[in-house]
């Protein structure tokens, strides 16, 4: 079609199709990949422990474990991130405490949470893996992740973990903005509201990532 000839219905249909069926046009080369396991730590995965538990993340542990095993069998570096008590909390966004996801209405002592950054035991890192303690949602914010990836010679990140629409989605956007190719696992990422999972995947599918199931990712890795 020529410029100047698009109707409203046509442009809306184009956008809708990209949200629903978009597929980023790049190859997945195992030797250029790193697997990110985002925030699969006790606070989000341990059933019933605290109000930040993400039940769907707990249910996805076996699938993430299978993806981990696949990556390690292909010598693909595994990089974990966790929230932890970094730099006396002075590296965290100052406005964070005002956000409603802190659940200020709850009368609990949360001073022991998000301090140690302990990965859920079923996904425990190996000595050969890398663990990054991060201060905010995105794994690139005030962390050495970009430097590590560059030094490893990797240009593609495979994202798994929780929460899809916070830490995982923010990391995908940050990776895209740093010219990394992003593979986003549609069934190895989890939200605390199932109605938001596909909404976030649609945005990522259109503009930031190649969105695939764990089985599709493992098939692409050979």
Q: How confident overall, as mean pLDDT?
A: 95
Number of continuous helical runs? 8
SSE order:
HEHHHEEHEHEHEH
Tell me the name of the CATH homologous superfamily. Isochorismatase-like
In total, the number of strands is: 6
Strand coverage percent: 15-25%
Largest sheet: 6 strands, parallel
In the predicted model, the low-confidence regions spanning at least 5 consecutive residues are none
Helix content: 25-40%
Shape: globular
Q: Over the alpha carbons, how many angstroms does the gyration radius reach? A: 18 Å
The name CATH uses for the topology is Rossmann fold
Structural features, described:
The protein is of the alpha/beta class. The protein has one domain (27-87, 111-220): 3-Layer(aba) Sandwich (Rossmann fold), CATH 3.40.50.850. 34% of the residues lie in helices and 17% in strands. It contains eight helices and six strands; from the N terminus they run αβαααββαβαβαβα. It has helices at 8-21, 42-45, 55-59, 61-73, 145-152, 164-177, 197-207, 214-220; strands at residues 33-38, 78-83, 130-134, 156-162, 181-190, 210-212. The chain has a six-stranded parallel sheet, sandwiched between helices. Strand 5 (181-190), helix 7 and strand 6 form a beta-alpha-beta unit. Helix 1 packs across helix 7 (197-207). The longest helix is centred in the N-terminal third of the chain and has 14 residues, at 8-21. It is globular, with a radius of gyration of 18 Å.
């Amino acid at each position: 079609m020529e410029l100047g000839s698009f109707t409203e219905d046509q442009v809306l249909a184009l956008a809708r199709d990209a949200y629903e069926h978009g597929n980023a046009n790049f190859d997945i080369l195992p030797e250029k990949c790193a697997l990110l396991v985002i925030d699969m730590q006790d606070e989000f995965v341990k059933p019933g422990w605290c109000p930040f538990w993400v039940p769907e993340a707990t249910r996805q542990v076996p699938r993430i474990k299978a993806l981990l095993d696949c990556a390690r069998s292909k010598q693909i570096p595994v990089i974990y991130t966790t929230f932890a008590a970094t730099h006396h909390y002075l590296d965290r966004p100052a406005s964070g405490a005002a956000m409603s996801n802190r659940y200020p209405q709850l009368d609990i002592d949360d001073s022991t949470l998000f301090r140690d950054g302990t990965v859920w035991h079923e996904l425990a890192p190996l000595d050969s893996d890398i663990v990054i303690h991060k201060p905010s949602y995105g794994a690139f914010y005030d962390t050495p992740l970009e430097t590590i990836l560059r030094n490893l010679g990797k240009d593609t990140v495979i994202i798994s973990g929780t929460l899809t629409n916070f830490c995982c989605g923010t990391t995908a956007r940050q990776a895209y903005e740093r010219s990394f190719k992003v593979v986003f696992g549609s069934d190895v990422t989890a939200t605390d509201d199932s109605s938001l999972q596909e909404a976030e995947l649609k945005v990522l599918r259109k503009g930031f990532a190649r969105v695939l199931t764990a089985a599709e990712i493992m098939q692409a890795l050979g």
